[in-house]
Amino acid sequence: MTLTERRTRYRNVLAGSECIHPASVFDPVSARMAEAQGFEIGMLAGSIASATVLGAPDIVVLTLSEFAEQIHRVTRASTLSLMVDADHGYGNALNVMRTVEELETAGVSALTIEDTQLPPRFGHNQGEELISVPEFVGKVKAAIAARQDPSLVIIGRTAALRSEGIEGAAARLKACTDAGADGIFLAGARTREEVEAMHKATSLPLLLGSTPPALNDRALLATNGVRIALQGHVPFQVVVKALYDTYKHLKEGGSPAALKDQAASEDLLNQALNRDAYRRWQRDYLGEPA
């Protein structure tokens, strides 16, 4: 599947009438496992990329090149339509253009550019301060101008609900819509009333971050224009716990054999590592015996 086909598939989700949950992925193996379960859309968050590439928290210390490299590893290993959280675009509007160039080349289907001040200024907590509406609009317009493949999806992301309330968020949605974005990512939505108000404020499809139980009704979200709703990043958290438990078991003298039932089978490893394809290529191009 070509990158344009993956991006078109993502656009079809935004143009549809249902709300879907993407798979939170973080490396080639996780992407393959998600695809094997039937997921078509993947999500690589900046926080999870920072964790997997640097072993660091989500405090904007990951560089654009490191992010792009990890994205490329994921997109070459699967045919997921990958959406990514590109934070603030790694700087001003011109940096946003460079970010779009790099991430498009790395194979993303969709990326978000947000309106939070990043990295946070001295004396501020991360995520509590927003850039001005004109600066946000400039970033969205710059992102659109920088893309080479018109099927690449550019999404404006706003955290205004947390700091400016419904009225302030609605104003930012309108500005983002007028700037030509393909969708709006709402960070911090907590109530049905907020989602309904945001749906009324824009004709664009909505995307939601992790939501409270009150917003776990996909039919309700779909009715209010939400096409993609994240479920957090539990897969990465589960992997970290499994690694910790495994190393603890072995360090304390436990046997590897005792973990057999928890370990991946050979069939599952074959799938995770794409062994069948590599064996076929070895036969076809290296003349190795079957």
Give a quick set of tags describing it.
alpha/beta; globular; 290 residues; eight-stranded parallel sheet; 11% strand; 8 strands
Produce the secondary structure layout.
Blueprint: H1 3-15, E1 23-24, H2 28-36, E2 41-44, H3 46-54, H4 64-77, E3 81-85, H5 93-106, E4 110-114, H6 133-146, E5 153-158, H7 160-179, E6 183-186, H8 192-201, E7 206-208, H9 218-223, E8 226-229, H10 234-251, H11 266-273, H12 275-286
Parallel strand pairs: 1-2, 2-3, 3-4, 4-5, 5-6, 6-7, 7-8
Kindly describe this structure:
51% of the residues lie in helices and 11% in strands. It has helices spanning 3-15, 28-36, 46-54, 64-77, 93-106, 133-146, 160-179, 192-201, 218-223, 234-251, 266-273, 275-286; strands at residues 23-24, 41-44, 81-85, 110-114, 153-158, 183-186, 206-208, 226-229. The two termini are 28 Å apart. Helix 7 packs parallel to helix 8. The protein has an 8-stranded parallel β-sheet. Strand 7, helix 9 and strand 8 (226-229) form a beta-alpha-beta unit. The protein contains 12 helices and 8 strands. The chain is α/β, with parallel strands linked by helices and 290 residues long.
